[in-house]
Specification:
Layout lengths: L3 H17 L5 E3 L2 E7 L2 E6 L6 E5 L5 E4 L4 E3 L6 H7 L7 H16 L7 H17 L8 H15 L2 H8 L1
Antiparallel strand pairs: 1-4, 2-3, 3-6, 4-5
Protein name: DUF1353 domain-containing protein
Organism: Microbulbifer bruguierae
Length: about 170
Amino acid sequence: MPSQDFMRQRMERRKKQFVENLNTGEFAGKFSLEWIGPGLFNYVPDPHDPFKYIRNLGNGESEIIEPGSMTTDGGSIPLLAQVLTGLEPWECGPAYIIHDWEFYRHDVDENFTKSFEDVNLTLAESMWTLMTKGYLGYEMPKKNYNDVHNVYFGVMSPVARSIWDA
């Protein structure tokens, strides 16, 4: 049976490989948040330069995701996960807004056809974009790929799936 150290190293390699193979896109535009209560904000796109994520689909094509007005809580990261991982609900705020928008569209727009898996992959790609293209103003590659991997597998959980399916 492989040692625990071997298994830990194997898992680290797989995490890193998954994240480093993500496509990166571009963020553009502006938005504001209006506080409406503890942990809740109204997302308001700038009327002259609306916020958007230009997703690289990896085949020479792109998808433009431009959120409309909605309520958001940033990253829905359970408190225990915040303590254990150091993740913060607003550290990757623009990526979380894109994810919240796509979840919202899934609930209210019958023409929205993206799958649960694709919406969550967009979250991972947009987080990796923030972390590797200088949007956050720091570079910590190991922390970056662990954070992206942990958030991605959190949003792919059975609990998240049940919320999507409700």
